[in-house]
Specification:
The protein contains four helices and no strands. One of its GO terms (molecular function) is methyltransferase activity. This is SAM-dependent methyltransferase.
Length: 59
């Protein structure tokens, strides 16, 4: 089976990434932000709808 021809080799992913990072509204978290999040992480995971649905189907 032959590969489909694309224009991926013409894209400058480095440039696109830098533009995206410049325009992004995402702000990185500080250590104290992660510490606060970690306090309740396991409880949040255990009580998530995904976890509840998953265990319901597995059990």
């Amino acid at each position: 089976m032959a590969l489909i021809k694309t224009n991926l080799d013409k894209l400058n992913f480095s440039k696109l990434y830098k533009i995206q990072m410049k325009n992004s509204t995402f702000k990185s978290k500080s250590s104290s932000d992660w510490d606060k999040k970690a306090l309740h992480f396991s409880q949040n995971v255990l009580n998530s709808p995904y976890t509840k649905e998953f265990t319901k189907r597995v059990d």
